[in-house]
Specification:
about 625 residues, 25 helices, about 75% helix, globular, transmembrane helix, Cytochrome c oxidase assembly protein, membrane
């Protein structure tokens, strides 16, 4: 099996090299670049193919160890095949890190006509281009993943390494085609889902073929591959549709379109092979060979120019945000200007579906579940969608007050509603248990993870809740990160995670016991409330917009640092007064940050009162029993 997997990997490299030679120096004139020569033109996509294959093997190896080759509950952390999969993941991570390091000078040569600057100019040239910096970061993350994969001994530790591996796979997306042009917000999210799902599909199949497995493990891998294949095709189609909708003229991006259509056709063939493999009518070798060709062609497509990057007339907001903003953000416009934010939308839908599945299982068993908890959970999911995909999400990158409103809802209101929904209690009552580890055991592994237990401690979570908005809005961090569109979903997820870590144990209690007494919970909640007031007052008192960005002179000289405001660069025809809008943002930070926390305080007081009445009733019942027994 290993020989056939190695042969498929070699075929992917060959496909990439041949495709480059057939294309020739296409695309460089459109970007205003000189031809770097055939060696560099072949080397860059070949290294990208190695990186993609290594990333898939890393992700797949960890998934095989964690999900596919699961041991019986209560036994050792990993099965023998799981241990072998971890070794494959570690070696693949080292391979990917090495290829990413080599891609730093290769990508520089690709953009500089075949030459690589030496000495002090190397750092300056790297920082002026996003791609080499991205490869350097991917190399560092890959090395960290490799070291961590060699040290992991427990399921929860493996899950953490898997998160690192996924982050490594996603780094090139932030500096690729999807990061520029019209619709880049949708293209970035769609490409991210496409890349991760493809890595899962290719990686689980290839790693399981290397380490071997029984019929049950192959069946699990096929189910994972099927789900990943569906996401790969759907997300890839979305990203391609956005790229094809660019303003380029006739004939723009023809070679990119041909490569993408050919890759899409082969992906569909691989999906058909996967489906037939599940029925035992096609061997896995056919599927892996086709997927290897897709990986090679996709690597070459990253060097082509999609229509969305072809020269064309676009407005300044469209060029910087990926979409236009024609009207000022009035309440009516915010309510009607929907634009999906795919990451949080997918998260909300998945969580709502899982909760509904739990409720359905309880109903089949005849068990009851409080209606208020269900309403709170689904309301939290809906509010997350509203805060990120309605006009709040669309105008947030361009208007500070709208940005603050959306972030405060995500950071406090959504976590509060989710805490009231008691999802952990529902999951423990409904997740099935079997002879081999399954979702119920994985949930317990995650809840018992030392990192999660440490981060969810009220004292630590309080520091995160207090420090996150202060660091973002009261320092240059906001101004420096605002132009980076790919960071916006990550910041949203960070605020959401911090809110869940803080409010979950305080409102719903920790998953493994009663937790802190009510008076201590109230103390932590009240201690967190002043931070939003301080942030709001700081925004009200500031005499300059926080969106100002310190930058070096454009000529790279030794002149003074000057200020470039991202909101000013948008050149919105209805642009608000930045200081007035910042003052409104300060008020919203105070109100929308503290009102949900006040509701959390009331919820804890109500639970405390209910518990106290229950204890009084128990004492009266005990006294009555004692009197009647005399």
């Amino acid at each position: 099996m290993r020989a056939r997997v190695a042969l498929a990997a070699g075929a992917a490299l060959l496909v990439a090299a041949v495709a480059v030679l057939v294309r020739g120096p296409v695309g460089y004139p459109e970007l205003g670049l000189a031809d770097p020569g055939v060696v560099v033109r072949v080397l860059v996509p070949v290294l990208r193919t190695v990186i993609d294959l290594a990333g898939a093997a890393t992700v797949g190896g960890l998934l095989v160890a964690l999900v596919v080759a699961t041991p019986a509950p209560g036994t050792t952390a990993f099965t023998p095949s799981g241990e072998r999969a971890l070794r494959v993941a570690r070696r693949a991570a080292w391979t990917g890190a090495g290829a990413a390091a080599l891609s730093v000078p290769a990508s520089l040569a690709d953009s500089l006509g075949g030459r690589v600057p030496l000495g002090p100019d190397l750092v300056t040239t790297m920082l002026a281009r996003g791609e080499p910096v991205g490869w350097l970061l991917a190399a560092v993350l890959g090395a960290v993943t490799a070291v961590a994969a060699g040290e992991v001994r427990r399921w929860s530790g493996g899950a953490g390494v898997l998160a690192l591996a996924v982050a490594t796979v996603l780094v090139p997306v932030a500096t690729g085609h999807a990061a520029d042009g019209v619709g880049r917000d949708l293209a970035l999210s769609g490409t991210a889902f496409h890349v991760v799902a493809a890595a899962v599909w290719v990686g689980t199949l290839g790693v399981l073929a290397v380490v071997g497995g029984d019929h049950r493990e192959w069946w699990r891998a096929a189910r994972i591959g099927t789900a990943a294949g569906v996401v790969t095709v759907a997300a890839g189609a979305l990203a391609a549709a956005v790229a094809l909708s660019g303003p380029g003229g006739p004939g723009a991006g023809v070679d990119w379109t041909v490569l993408v259509l050919l890759s899409a056709a082969l992906t569909v063939v691989a999906g058909g092979a996967l489906w037939r493999r599940r029925t035992g009518r096609v061997a896995w070798r056919v599927e892996l060979a086709v997927l290897a060709a897709v990986v090679g062609l996709s690597a070459v497509a990253t060097r082509a120019v999609p229509p969305v990057q072809a020269p064309g007339a676009t407005s300044t907001p469209t060029a910087l945000l990926g979409y236009g903003l024609a009207a000022p953000p009035t309440p009516a416009v915010l309510a009607s200007s929907w634009r999906p934010e795919l990451v949080t939308l997918a998260l909300a839908v998945v969580l709502a579906v899982l909760y509904a599945a739990g409720l359905r299982r309880l109903a089949r068993e005849g068990a009851r579940w409080p209606v208020g908890r269900s309403v709170a959970w689904f309301a939290g999911c809906a509010l997350l969608v509203v805060a990120t995909s309605s006009g709040l999400g669309r105008y947030g990158p361009a208007v500070l007050s709208v940005h603050i409103a959306g972030h405060m809802l995500v950071a406090t209101a959504v976590p509060l509603l989710w805490a009231l929904g008691a999802p952990v209690v529902l999951a423990r009552r409904t997740l099935p248990e079997g002879a081999r580890e399954g979702p119920a055991d994985w949930l317990e592994h995650v809840l018992a993870a030392p990192t999660l237990r440490w981060a969810s401690h009220p004292a630590v979570a309080l520091v995160l809740v207090v420090g996150s908005p202060a660091l973002l809005y009261l320092t240059p961090v906001f101004a420096l990160t605002q132009p980076l569109g790919w960071l916006q979903p990550l910041m949203t997820l960070w605020f959401l995670l911090v809110g869940v870590l803080f409010l979950g144990p305080l409102v719903a209690g920790p998953p493994d016991g009663p937790g802190l007494p009510p008076i201590a919970r109230l103390t932590f909640l009240l201690a967190s409330m002043p931070v939003h007031a301080l942030v709001g007052l700081a925004l009200l008192a500031a005499d300059h917009p926080v969106s100002r960005t310190p930058v070096l002179p454009a000529d790279g000289g030794s002149g003074q640092i000057w200020v470039d405001d991202f909101f000013v660069r948008l050149r919105l025809p209805w642009a608000p007064d930045l200081l007035a809008d910042q003052h409104l943002a300060g008020v919203l930070a105070w109100l929308l940050g503290d009102l949900p926390l006040l509701a959390a305080v009331l919820a804890v007081l109500a639970a405390w009162s209910h518990h106290a009445r229950g204890e009084d009733a128990d004492r009266r019942a005990d006294l009555l029993v004692g009197l009647t027994s005399r």
